Amino acid sequence: EPEEPEEQDNEEPQSSAKTTTTTTATTTSSSTKKKQRRASTSKVKDVKLEVSISNPKKVGDGMSSYISYTVNTKTDLESFGVNDIDVEHRYSDFLNLYKNLVNDYPGVIVPPPPPKDAIGAGLTKWKSQEEGVTTTFIERRGKALQRFMERVVAHPVLYKAESVKTFLTTENKIPKPKTSAFANLSQKLSSYVEADEFFAEQSHEVDVLENQLKKLCNVLTVLVARRRELSELTTVFAESFSSLADCEELTSLSDAMHQLADVEAKVAKLHKKQQEKDFYEFAELAFDYVQLMGAIKTCFQQRISAFKSWQSAESTLLKKREHLENVEAKNKVEKIEPAKADVTAAEDNVDSSKSHFEEIAKRLKQELKRFNFIRAKDFRDAMFQYTSEMKLMEEKIAHAWTNFLPIAKGIGQDEL
Q: How far is CA 403 from CA 260, 263, 282, 406, in A?
């Protein structure tokens, strides 16, 4: 069992009541729905906040078109003003919500939405509204946006954000933040030498974990592709064998061949279902965590930026003090009071910058503990689910072949 993290303090609530998020994205298998219902249950004290993403639809035509999603919220939070509300949002609104949360809550590991996909989005722009938007790309993005919102409303700090409330209760276009926490990220990280042993160790662990998650993603992508290929080839074999059975004159043999083809068709469907489960329940989980590694690195960068701001404030204070000493030494009476005021302002800036840095560092330590707890639980659940589903699939395959075996043994006993 992973160790549950301590509750976060300051603006964060204590431990947990139910926050449920449901998924209604198009063409979802029943097993996937079960998994999503499990994953969407999290805890925030005395709070009901249910968010579901559904009904993707195309708005407009051509290159100016886009896909909108219905965001349904059910809550008992008085600040929302309503208990049940539907709003429409496009992908860029989700993306800007994420960027605003990153800027407004430095040190908080903000779960990212699915990344931009120019090719997938471009293909949907050329489909007419009559053709619908139930493509693999739209289905995958809808489920990824669902997981994004699940993680946001399950967070003990983020669910209270004003930008989250605005997103869930209005259809206002979410503006981009005026400043960006992502600018020159790699450059700033590479130019900083970590002096804190805890964060130096955490940074190394994140790099190692990110590398292993990327490898797992690649392997799972191949696994899903191979299982899909196996399903398709098994289907082709079943169809070919059934056609051959039509040419067989021996009745018992022909009937048995048709039944074997039926078994192969069932096996093909089982592999196809397992391929979908592997993708949405395991491969997408690994991909989400690769993205979350980037979110953690953004938090590291925010801490570094706060440290540099503090050091810059210290340097400015030193210069202001030197200037004050200089005007006092030269007895420039008219400049002494302004210089003292500059020193006082610089001292306040140092105190504020130091406090901001320490607050981010403290919050990030809490966030990392929470993240590691949730990560361990997510992968434990994923492994159990994968094992259970593989066992069930293999049992169904074995049962199908076991039932067919007596038929195969009895072929043509009276005719051969």
A: 10, 9, 32, 7
